[in-house]
Every structure is written in structure tokens, then in C-alpha cells.
Amino acid sequence: MSSHEYLVEMRGIVKRFPGVLANDHVNFGLKRGEVHALLGENGAGKTTLMNILYGLYRADEGEIYIRGKRVKIRSPKDAIKLGIGMVHQNFRLIPTHTVVENIVLGLKEVGFVLNHKKLEQEIRELASSYGWSIDPSAKVWQLSAGEKQQVELLKALYRRAEILILDEPTSVLTPQETKALFNAIRRMAEEGKGVIFITHKLDEVMQVSDRVTVMRKGRVVVTKNTSDTNPAELANYMVGRPVIFTLQRKPMLPGKEVLRLKDVYAMSDKGVLALKGINLRIRKNEILGIAGVAGNGQIELAEVITGLRKVIKGKILINDVDATNKSPREIMELGVAYIPPENLRWGLVANLRVVDNLFLKAYRYPPYSNRVMINWRKIYDMADELIKKFEIVTPSKFTRTRALSGGNLQRLVLARELSGIIGGGVPDLIVAAYPTKGLDVAATEFVRKTLLRYREMGSGILLISEDLEEILMLSDRIGVIFDGRIVGEFKAEEADIERIGLLMAGAKVEAA
Amino acid sequence: MTYSRIASILTTVIAIGLAFAAVAGILTAMRLDTYRAFGVILAVFITPRLLLQAILRGLPIVLATLGLAIAFRMNFWNIGAEGQIYWGMIAATGVVLAHVYYGYLPDLLVLPTMLIASFIAGGVWCLIPAILKAKLNVNEILTTLMMNYIAAYFVDYLIYGPWRDPHGYGFPLSIPFPKYAKLTFVAENPSYTGLILSIILAAMVYIIFRFTKLGFELRVIGENLDAARYAGITIPRVLMLGSFLSGGLAGLGGLSIVSGIIGRLRPRASPGYGYTAIIVAWLAALNPWLIIPAGIFFGGLLVAGESLQATLKIPNAAVQILQGIIFLFIILGEFLKRYKISFGGGRGVR
Questions:
Q1: What's the pTM value of the predicted model, to 2 decimals?
Q2: Pick from B246, B305, B193, B324: nearest CA to B63
Q3: Does the structure's ipTM exceed the value 0.90?
Q4: Which residue, among A364, A368, A398, A409, would best test binding to B if mutated, counting the most B CBs under 10 Å from its CB?
Q5: Tens of pLDDT along B180-198?
Q6: Is the Cβ–Cβ distance between A412 and A358 less than 8 Å?
């Protein structure tokens, strides 16, 4: 292999999708032995660019050089041959197969009959060289998210990838797992590999990368050495304006209790126990943040409270009223607003108009309808007001909802849930499940500010998030959920990231 | 008009065109005179007398399709319109027989009573699978389909048994309906009454879709069941109400057969109107106004089939083949609207 300084050079890459210019004459270079962060908001074109490099898309214009040689990458197969490996945000593994089987899947060299012993030995050695202690004979479904990611990386490394693309790799990891990943990434760079690290988190850029390229609206804004920049400057590049990082959380005395869960048990969709005796309470003017790795009962918790999931044991009180196993509608009418996860799946109807989704709940109450008929006039008037008030950017209220960007979809959900069109006034309880997941910086800021504003106006808020920083920023109290139980609770002032991280990972820590 | 709207209409037109082309191929292969055959089909739609007949034959299709539009709107795959039609016929005939033998109703109220009875009978027949789905999560495609056979055989039983006309020389027929029990309200030709009935009911379905809470809920359930649950919509209630209306309209379709087309009940009185309605529902994209011309189009094909048989000795089955091919091409068109075919190694389809 040549010792060309640049492993990858992409020049003048243009990629058009119907209606958008996803990549607008992008130049990008990856040096040997560097970790190169690719920073930008959602929709900035980072993933598109990398999908082009990995052969999933083809560029409309531009040239790609690998180790100084011009190449045409038509498919991931070509990319793999060139020594490129990509770890996607959602893992592409076969859960019922073992680690080894997943890693060698599709490799011709290993032959038809697998020599398990030899392969296991090889993979164990490869893993341990990066500080991982994964069991090659384990089935993938038994692994944690962090371990699955290791399998994905091993898959690329086993194919001798020199160019590794990691698409938002930390979004599923605990703080400890993130640290381990960063160590491994540094190790790969030391071996002379090049790592491209796609992210929108500034602190990760500062921690792990040598250089950083910032993209905005399909263009490269800047490429810099990480040591020559700082988070505030990067955020500025990324958003195009200065960003306020710390939101002011006014000290407030919590008011009367709006939610109490007493020893609540519930099943997951798969029929296994997902909540195993949850106790918690929330008062007015208070945000309770629930920290945890995805899949430890968070969604079930939100659904139990909002009436979408059956409680099999225990009791839920909302505003001192027994709300155990009440219907979603009855709970809504008790003053509960719900910001659901993956709003396009759970909370919005993509094929309906914006106005229909704004009134997905309120349509049934006067003055928007009588017993039978809907009063569209009233709804249309109010919709205009909501669109303005919640800064929803849409061509019109009659636009199909699917055409809106992620940030605007979430603004739509907030407008519907919080504006008071259901029942009037401020909701007593807001259940917010992953409210900023996948949103760009501006929309994230909007959602967080909105939640804080409602806290001041008197709502009690249950905030479920994977983003520990967000939880620390917004919450008055923090509960850590693991395996269907609240395994620790902290006041915001006394929270200790180290300990929260350990609890999230299931470590037994003595309560303080 | 939006791009997708135009594309949608265009694919439908192309689908029908391609279907006719395919049928031309079949007719040619059978050494039949394709030009004359198409001439006969065209004549149905431009000769007033035949057009009125097409409207009449299309009536049960239109009514059943209006019902299907409601069910399909909420993703309730009611393919039991045929059975619901039969129950509409049974109820309508039952009212007539009750009146003729034990009548105490004024004659003028017989037809309105028949309308109500056939609506309820068809509605209940569709309500049963809806309840099974709401309570036990039983797949409605199977139940509605199976219940078609039950309904059709029950008509056989009635006509070969207790409802056979005692003066009918043993033929499996009910007594002929008296005049006040037939769709001859507006004019001697029942087509006019039928057309007016279609327009009124299409308007009602349109109003349900556009302006009522029920219509909104049907749509939300059809588009995203999870979101409907989340929004607090009482799904079983909507499911049952929607199905009742759906079956009820098909039941009226059944009434239109016995009091409009045949004038009495006989076994197998529906040559598959309820199945044709499924095709029409797709063709009209569940739009209640488009359902009327689309239904009449298929009614016209039935009329054409009979005259083809009479004039050119073309088997009636050819027309059924045409129907089937049209449906096939419409489904293909739907597929093509959703996906982009790329030839060769062209990648980059999102």
C-alpha cells in the first residue's frame, strides 16, 4: 500500500435529491493516522457525503481519490475492497447469530465451513488489541448496545479497513462506553488508520478528534485543527449564529403533586416485564429527568402514565385522581400532555395536513366541533395562530405534514400538546419522551426553552432523554432507570455524572 | 391540481387503456372482430337507452362502493360487500313478503321501510367481523370473505324453501314485487331514482369524510393506528360505526337489485357486484363523487357483455376478463406510482 498522506480525498462532490442540494461542491480530506470529526446539524449533508464515500449513493459531480488514486465507488462492495468500513447509526447485525458469524458473514476467504476455533481466536485477539473483552461465541441479541457497536467495528477491522466511518456512534452509549470507544478510536489512529467521526456533539469533537470539518446546508464551512478552535466557535460555524449553551433554569419552589407512581409494573410489547416496581413523583414547577440507556423501560414508563400501556400491578395518581389503566383520552382530560418519541410514528399522521395534526386531539372538543360536525372555520383560524406562536415553518397549514422538517414536526407536537387548545390553560403534567432526539440545534434550543417556560408556568414535567447533558441542564431532580427500576435519584445540584453513568450501565452503587 | 393528483389520474387512465389493449389482444387471438366488439362497448355509453341500463346495473356497484370507501378509509379491508348485498336483498324481500301476506303498513311506507331494513341488515352483517376484529383481533379479510358464502347460501335456502313463490310453477323465485316496492318513484325507469339515490348517498359520504368527527377519526385510524390510539380516539367505536355504515350502504345496493333490476328475489341475484365494488373503490381512489361514474362504467361493461353475447357471440366471460385486467393494471399503476423502476445498474434511488 502506498504511503500517500491522504487516505481519502473528495473533491467538488455534488449530490442532489429532489428539491434539495444535499452536497454542494464539498471538499473533504482524511489523513493517515487522524481522527477527523465531521460536524453539522441534521440535514447538513454529513451522512450523505459519507454514504457517497461508502458507495450507498453516487455523487452527481465530483471526484474521489483513495490513497492518491482516483476511484469510482459504485457499491459498498467496492468501498470495502478499497479498505473503507462504515458503522451505521442503527446496527446491521443478525441478532440470532453469534459475534463470529456476524463478522465473517459475506467473506469469501473464510470458506464454506467455518473453522470456529480459529476464527474465535483471531477475533478475540483483534478485540483485545482495542481493549475490548467481547465473547466471540456470544449471540448478538445478548449483547449491550456498546458491544454491538464493537462487533460492527470488528467487522470492518477484520476486513482490514483502513478508513473507518462512524455515524453518530455515541448516541446509544453510556458515558463509560463512550470513553472506551474513544480510546479504541485513538488506538486505531495510532495504527495509521483514518477515522471519520460523524457527530453533532461539540464536546465529543473536542475530546477525540485531530481535525474537524463543519458542514452547514450541504456545504463545508470550515476545516480546522481541533486544537485551534473551541466549542463556541464550532457551534457558531454549525448554526451560522452564536448559540446560547446554558439555559437559565430559575430556582423555583415545587408546588403540589401532579403525578405519583406507586410500585408500577408493566409488560413490554414482547411480553416480558419492562417496569418492575417504579415509584416516583412529580410536583408542579418541577422537572424530573429520567436518565438511562435506551430500552430499559423508558418508553413503557411514558406509555403507562399516558394510558397507552396497561399497568399490571401498582397505582398511578394524576392530580390525586386514580389514573391507573384509564384510557389515553381520560388521562389527557386530566391535564396530561404527551410529547411522544419518534413523533412521526406515534404522534403524527404523516399523510394528513399540518392543521389536522395540530387538532389531532382537540378536534373533539367545543368550540372546534359539536356532537357530530367539525367546525373547520374555528380550527383554521386557531391553526394560523398556533403556527405563528410556535414558530412552525410550513408553506401553509394545508401542507402535508410529511413535508416538514424534524424540528418543525416537533414544534407542531409542542403546539398541539401545550398550547391549551385541549382543555385550555397550561397542562398540569407534561410527559416528554426523547423530545430533542434527532433535532437540529435551533429546534433543540426551542424545545428546551419551551419546557423550561412551562415549568415556570406551573407544569410538572417528566423528561425522558438519552442525552445526559440535556437531563442535567433541565432537571430539578434526576432519576436513573435501569432494567425497569429507578436505581438512583439525585437532586440536580448533587448529581455526579460518573455515578449516574455507572448506574445507567447497571452497576450496583451504594445510594448516598 | 397537484402533481401527484395528475399522476394519479393519468395512471388510472393509462391502466384502463392498457386493459383494453390487452383485451383486444385476447379477442384477436380468439379470432373475433375486435373493432366491432369495442364498437358495441362504446355504444353502451353513448346510446341513451343503454346508458340508462348501465346506470341501473351500476347502481348496486355504486352503493356498495360508497360503503367500501368508508371501510377502506379506515383500513378495514371489507371484502364482504357481496354478502352485505345479499342481506340487503333478504331484508328488502322480507319486508315485501311481510307486507303482502300480513300487511298493515300503508303501501307508501313499504319502500322506506325496505330501505331502512336493508341498510340495517347489511350493516349488521358487516358489524359482526368488525366486532370480532375489535374484541378478538380476528382478521377481517377472512371473516368478511367467508361470510359472503353464508349470505349467498342463506338466500338459496329461503328461495328454495319458505320464500318460494307458491304460484311460480316451482321455479326458485320469490313473488314478484308489487309496484310500490320498486324503484319507480321518480319515473317509470328505475334508473332515474337510482341516480338520485346515488347522488344523495355520495353527498352523505362526502359530508361524513369532510365535515364530521367520524370522518376525521376514520382517516386518522386508516393512516396511523398508533397515532389514533395516542390521540385518544376510541378505535373500537369508530371501527364498529364505520363498518355498520359500510355494510349498510352495501345493503342498499342489495335493495337496488331486488327492487330495481330484477323486481323479485332469486338465487345468485348478484353476479359479483360486491367484488366489482372493490375494483371500483380503487379506481375511484375512495372519492365518493368519482365512485358514481366509475360504478356506472362497470355497470356499462356488464350491459356490454350481454350485448356482445347476443350480437357477436362473444362469451360473457370476456367482459369479466376485461374487468379483471383493468383491476390488475390499476394495481400495477399504484405500484409504479410508489416505486421508481431503474433499469441497468442505476443506483441512487432513495
A1: 0.80
A2: B246
A3: no
A4: A364
A5: 999 987 778 899 999 999 9
A6: yes
